């Protein structure tokens, strides 16, 4: 590959030297070369303008296709997702209300059971414990007196 680069540079150098020599020997050649250079540059500028316009049209087409894809595909999916999220929020709110109601019911039931069922059982258990303690005390008292007398 380096060989081809060297050959290309040599050809460009030879053409440049030949152009300078011919321009020095023939003054009319400079005028013709200038006109040819202006025409070549104008052609290249027109090609660049046409390529720029083609590139601009390609970008506009791509943007239009992306916009159409977003409008036809993405936007309906976002709307569907939004509807599902709204439904999920409504369901969550109803579940939260049910949990709140259940919590209130459990709290009320707990208070009722504590007042109506557990409290009397505790009183009866306390009374039985007191009777038992009194019976033990009285039973010991008689046993202690007999031991002291004997």
Q: How would you characterize this protein structure?
A:
The model has no long low-confidence stretch (mean pLDDT 88). The N and C termini lie far apart (133 Å). It is built from two helices and no strands. It is rod-shaped, with a radius of gyration of 53 Å. The chain has one domain (2-149). It is mostly helical and 150 residues long.
Number of strands: 0
> Mean pLDDT score, rounded?
88
Characterize the largest beta sheet: strand count, sense, and whether it forms a barrel.
none
Low-pLDDT sequence parts: none
Share of helical residues: over 70%
Q: How far is it from the N-terminal to the C-terminal residue, by CA? A: 133 Å
The rough form would be described as rod-shaped
Query: How big is the Rg?
Result: 53 Å
Order of helices and strands: HH
Structural category: mainly alpha
Structural domains: how many: 1
Subunit organisation of the chains:
single chain
Number of helices: 2
- How big a fraction of the residues is strand? under 5%
Keywords:
98% helix, 150 residues, mainly alpha, rod-shaped, single chain, 2 helices
Write the layout of secondary structure elements.
Blueprint: H1 2-25, H2 27-149
Helix pairs in contact: 1-2
């Amino acid at each position: 590959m380096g060989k081809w680069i060297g050959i290309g540079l040599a050809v460009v150098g030879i053409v440049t030297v030949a152009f300078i020599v011919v321009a020095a020997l023939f003054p009319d050649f400079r005028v013709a070369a200038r006109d040819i250079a202006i025409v070549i540059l104008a052609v290249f500028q027109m090609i660049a303008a046409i390529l720029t316009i083609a590139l601009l049209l390609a970008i506009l087409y791509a943007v239009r296709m992306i916009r159409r894809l977003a409008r036809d595909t993405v936007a309906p999916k976002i709307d569907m997702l939004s509807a599902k999220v709204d439904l999920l929020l409504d369901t969550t709110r109803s579940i939260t209300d049910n949990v709140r109601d259940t919590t209130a019911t459990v709290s009320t039931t707990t208070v009722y059971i504590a007042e109506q069922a557990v409290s009397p059982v505790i009183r009866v258990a306390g009374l039985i414990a007191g009777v038992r303690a009194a019976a033990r005390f009285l039973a010991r008292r008689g046993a202690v007196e007999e031991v002291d007398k004997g």
